[in-house]
Amino acid sequence: MSVVAAAPSESAEPPASPEGHGSGSRRPHLIVALVALALATYVTSGLWRDPAGRGLTENMGDQAFFEWLLGYGVYTLGHGADPFYTWMMNAPFGVNLAANTSVTVYTTLFSPLTFLAGPQVSFVTILTLNLAGSAFTWYLFLRRWLVRLPVAAALGGLAIGFAPGFISHANGHLNWTAGWVAPVVLWRVLLLRERGRWLLNGVILGVLLAIGFSIAAEGLFFTALAAGVFVLVWSLAPATRSEARAAAPTVLAALGVAAVQAGLLLAYPLYMHFAGRRTFTGTGFNQAHYAEDFGAYFQYPTRSVAGWLGLGSDLAPNPTEETSFFGVPLMILTVVGLVVLWRAAAPGRRATLAAISAVGVVFLLLSWGPQLKFFKSSTSINLPYEALRHLPLFDSALPARYALVVAAVIGVVVAMLADRLLTEPLPSVRVHATWAAAFALALVPLVPLPVLTRPRAPEPAFIADGIWRDYVSDNGVLTALPVATTDTPDGQRWQAYTMARAGKQFRIPGGYFLGPGGPDGTGRIGAESRATDWLFFRAAYYGTVVPLDDFDRDQARRDFAFWGVEAVFLPDEITGAHTDLFRSAVELTATDLLGTPERVGGVLLWRIRPGIDPAGRGTGD
Q: CA dist 462 to 53, 90, 598, 603, Å?
């Protein structure tokens, strides 16, 4: 962050309550923590019922990717491997993990749990703690900086931590559900103005920036951008301008220390991210597609009480990206709340409200992407993001996700409004009842439902019992059929579970990741398809079975040699990320291409030997 950070004016903020520091004050903290944890467990309950046997209905691909990262975390510690570049996936090229969402801090901290219980358990544990931790840290942040009453801070914290966007991202995204990163970083930013502590505060912030980058780099970018907008507007307000000017030297010194500290900790991952092998610019996703619809702000999410009542909307790019969906009542309550707070505020407090509002408006505009979409209708109206989309950092972000910052702004306004209404006398019981009804109408429909889950293919004994070791050399290449992609994630899962165990390992071709190969040097999703993996994908995904000839077998021989594949296998059950797969079509295709398989450990196995064509005939090489 290159802007001057300063806390809201102390003279303009509500005084800190004695409850915030006394021994008796821990009870509200404990209650909020337990409520947040209970609600997070409820949201993820489908996975807790059977972490190994059930997956996220809407996004098994991302779930498999993060389970793979968790397994790789154990492998990294056990083998001294590079946490930011792996050769275990996408044989023979490998994958730049620094250019992906590698959640390195999580994979390291949870490696004991991953080793003992498996990546599946670590995944749902982190997902649950992310949701609960986000709500709780926002509660603490609001309690410390903006509101007097614990109940108001709790209401705001829960509204942010369990906002529709974060519930939507609970469908597989361990990075985007880590909403606790923002309030922790912002807390330390607001402390940078402390005189005489610029060195310590700078070092602490630098460490937190490094942690945040390793868990949610895009979210950290949003946090820095929001902090910059807030501080700029607050510092320019007449009531707080002199206060900002006085704090500037201390803040700038602390920011310098933070930059150096974060730079030292992130030197290698940043190098790998921007200049390492197999890096890329932009993203493999269409930014115009992953932009928020104007109407989405006034609709309800599918996994909510309102959605359960039939009021859910389909305006999101997919169910994992319902990042706004606040509903008309909450949008109205937010605007009315800002007006009420503004009218009653002292000049310094108005500077804070103006800065918060500015953050909300800026991120609202950014979330709409390069062109305005109005209730599914594309328009030719260019928006600010059109001028930003090709700039560094902006080119790697998906516009719809900026709405997560809008969710935080709304939660802050809700907390501040509730605090004022509960601490200031109102004219009558009727007014009290009207405000209570308004809050209920705005918030109750958004109470989340559990994320949807469905059964997924069980780990075959061939993998679980280590039978595969008899057919593949150490670090040799083995692949499930179909080859692992975002739509066919089983092969990536099987490798994840193997890496979480000690001993011999295997590599896989393909996988779900971001890498080079997109248009104009941008990224693409997964490896570039070859004829043979496309043959199996087409059979699995579409059920297409076509007669094969010697040309197909010769192509398969060359593709297997390119990957270095020593064996391929087909489990008795296979799972698609978004749809059922046609296993029988894969078996027919594999048998036609590779000949009669062996039956071992609950899978059909085909050995691939150098110098022998896939059907078993000598090649003469």
A: 17, 22, 12, 7
